[in-house]
Amino acid sequence: xxxxxxxxxxxxxxxxxxxxxxxxxxxxxxxxxxxxxxxxxxxxxxxxxxxxxxxxxxxxxxxxxxxxxxxxxxxxxxxxxxxxxxxxxxxxxxxxxxxxxxxxxxxxxxxxxxxxxxxxxxxxxxxxxxxxxxxxxxxxxxxxxxxxxxxxxxxxxxxxxxxxxxxxxxxxxxxxxxxxxxxxxxxxxxxxxxxxxxxxxxxxxxxxxxxxxxxxxxxxxxxxxxxxxxxxxxxxxxxxxxxxxxxxxxxxxxxxxxxxxxxxxxxxxxxxxxxxxxxxxxxxxxxxxxxxxxxxxxxxxxxxxxxxxxxxxxxxxxxxxxxxxxxxxxxxxxxxxxxxxxxxxxxxxxxxxxxxxxxxxxxxxxxxxxxxxxxxxxxxxxxx
Length: 384
Fold this sequence. Notes:
By secondary structure, this protein is an alpha/beta fold. It folds into 2 domains: 5-85 and 147-377, TIM Barrel (Alpha-Beta Barrel); 91-145, no CATH class. It is built from 14 helices and 15 strands. The strands form 4 sheets. An 8-stranded parallel β-sheet has the order 1-2-8-9-12-13-14-15, sandwiched between helices. Strands 4-5-6 form a 3-stranded antiparallel β-sheet, with no helix packed on it. A two-stranded antiparallel ribbon has the order 3-7.
């Protein structure tokens, strides 16, 4: 039995993490308490946590199952993203994406995405180079959409998933969908193609859908019960493109993926940072049980979202990672956690969590305070 301080807060008939998450995503009333979800943790943050709390991590919190999940157990999250699929893309044949890149520090990947080396040693996406139909056809002929399925991955995770459930931590696999295609264009050219050649964009969408169906099948075959389809599609305060473009080109991908997952008994939720509310109607019609991130710094007001959409979809996230969790006081973190619960927990259909990965700038003490506050005040019925 893994360490769990729920009993310290009076959880006498506690659900396990799986039961709690499924009830919230199904929007089927209130579980024992508000469940929690984390996208992931960056490396420097992990080291800071070990430096601060290593002596407090107990042996029964150590969780090594196809990776090290110990810190998620220590902070007592219910679920976490698994950034992995059984499908990988084959190398392009007869083409060097970087052949004509002359500027130092620039890199073009096999998807036509241009990245620049940043001061901290990471490559940051800049733009795309596949800006005409001729270029796309050359890259398609070189194997742009050619993939392989790793059956051993499915076998490993079919064994690992039950072990993680036994440890009371639910892994949720995630991958991007149309974002790979959109980022292969310069953004202005993407808009041009939608105006002038929407049929070509739909052809690309259909080709990436074929690959994603293999991902969906592999995830379902491995036994996962919750999965995420992700596409960043919004900035702070505004969307990247009109909802009409989303519903015409991208939503049909989600609908087919979600329909397949639902037939296999698997629930899905959507991820994007930014101001995503204009897409909510299309996302719900596409079959998503939940929508995640709900970034407050981007203008996503959780109380408004609950009042407007709470009967139609599970809301996930809303704890700020840009300022609050890195630099806020413990008192501010407690107040923000309580506000999330007050705004969205009543009636169920809410999963608590940070809006992004727990970044390197985040303060481990703030994550600890956040989760302790959730466990203390997140019990149903909510009374804050």
